[in-house]
Amino acid sequence: MFDLEQFVADCRAAIASDPSHVATQEVVARAVADPGAVLAALGEPRRAVLEKLYHAPDLTILNVIWGAR
Asked: What is the DSSP letter of 69?
């Protein structure tokens, strides 16, 4: 199950351990490997939106939903 707080913590730990962002990419890849869990946690998209899920000086996490066409 996708947990946003855990995802943020994992991303922050990845940034701290690997400034090249390779470790962060691996965290993101694991999260999006189960899109159903992400949808269950963040909700089913209803319209195009750019939503800031988390922001800090060293990390911003966005939920980007593209509109039709």
From this structure: -
Quote the crossing angle between the two packed helices 22-32 and 4-17, to the nearest 10°: 160
Q: Are residues 15 and 59 in contact, defined by beta-carbon separation less than 8 angstroms?
A: yes
pTM for the full predicted model:
0.89
pLDDT in tens, 13-41: 999 999 899 999 999 999 999 999 999 99
**C-alpha to C-alpha distance for 37 and 63, rounded to whole angstroms:** 14
Are 62 and 11 in contact by the 8 Å Cβ rule? The answer is no
Q: Rounded CA gap, 13 and 28, in Å? A: 13
